[in-house]
């Protein structure tokens, strides 16, 4: 059993509060859409939850089987796909997958062969990632999220660079492969998050301070 808990969370850059007073509690099988206009702080919140950026105030905690996970161990339970995260371009797909799945276990009963079929990259196994199209890179980033063993899946703009087939594929993957995970989606496109039971708008957590 996994639990993500944010209490009174706030983030400020210099003098500007991006969000404040944000409380969240999410567990397995729950999906949260983080919506808001450009620059409202969706990616900033995702980065804070991923442990890539510290909160300015408030608390962030993960619990696994009732025990709090130490901050230094968060990354073991999290997978993230975001436009600002780069893939190692000099690796071939095969080299990258062998490397990645050394650190994050591939989902039980899934082989590398099945993985590449699922993300329809079977023709690209020996191709350097630098030669991938932007859609191929996006399917790889998302596939890593869907097929790694992790309780918390963070997706920032998940269908960017995907065509209609890719978007249908994304929705099917979400349906079939995230049932018992906690999924957070930062997005402005309702097709990406229409299925989420929980939604927040970043504007509701914006409080500027005057100095
Ligand atoms: N490292 C940083 N230092 C200072 N300001 C930052 C930093 N990162 C983000 N910001 C600012 O925080 C605000 C929120 O940015 P963020 O990227 O989180 O928004 P967003 O909702 O994801 O936007 P978009 O929909 O355009 O992707 C913006 O005003 C941005 O300029």
Map the helices and strands:
Layout: E1 2-13, E2 16-26, E3 31-35, H1 42-49, E4 57-64, E5 67-68, E6 78-81, H2 93-103, H3 112-118, H4 134-147, E7 152-156, H5 164-177, E8 182-186, H6 190-193, E9 198-201
The structure holds adenosine-5'-triphosphate.
GO molecular function: ATP binding
Keywords: ATP-binding, Nucleotide-binding, Transport
Organism: Negadavirga shengliensis
Structure description:
This protein has 211 residues and is of the alpha/beta class. The chain is 27% helix and 27% strand. It contains 6 helices and 9 strands; from the N terminus they run E-E-E-H-E-E-E-H-H-H-E-H-E-H-E. The strands form 2 sheets. Strands 6-7-8-3-9 form a 5-stranded parallel β-sheet, sandwiched between helices. A 4-stranded antiparallel β-sheet has the order 2-1-4-5, covered by helices on one side. Strand 4 and strand 5 form a beta hairpin. Helix 4 packs parallel to helix 5. The chain is globular and about 50 Å long. The model has no long low-confidence stretch (mean pLDDT 94). The site of adenosine-5'-triphosphate has 11 residues, from helix 1. Adenosine-5'-triphosphate binds next to helix 1. Keywords: ATP-binding, Nucleotide-binding, Transport. This is ATP-binding cassette domain-containing protein.
């Amino acid at each position: 059993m996994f639990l993500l808990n944010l209490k009174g969370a706030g983030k400020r850059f210099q003098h500007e509060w991006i969000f404040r007073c944000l409380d969240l509690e999410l567990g397995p099988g729950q999906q949260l859409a983080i919506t808001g206009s450009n620059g409202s702080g969706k990616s900033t919140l995702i980065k804070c939850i991923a442990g890539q950026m510290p909160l300015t105030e408030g608390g962030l905690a993960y619990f696994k089987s009732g025990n709090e996970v130490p901050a230094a161990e968060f990354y073991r339970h999290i997978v993230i796909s975001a436009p600002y995260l780069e893939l190692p371009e000099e690796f071939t797909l095969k080299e990258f997958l062998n490397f990645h799945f050394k650190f994050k276990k591939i989902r039980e009963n899934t082989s590398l062969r099945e993985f590449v079929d699922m993300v329809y990259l079977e023709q690209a196994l020996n191709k350097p990632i630098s030669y991938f199209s932007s859609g191929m890179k996006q399917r790889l980033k998302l596939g890593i999220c869907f097929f790694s063993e992790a309780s918390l899946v963070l997706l920032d703009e998940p269908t960017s660079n995907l065509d209609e087939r890719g978007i249908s594929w994304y929705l099917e993957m979400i349906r079939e492969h995230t049932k018992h995970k906690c999924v957070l989606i930062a997005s402005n496109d309702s097709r990406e998050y229409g299925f989420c039971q929980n939604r927040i708008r970043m504007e509701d957590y914006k409080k500027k301070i005057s100095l």
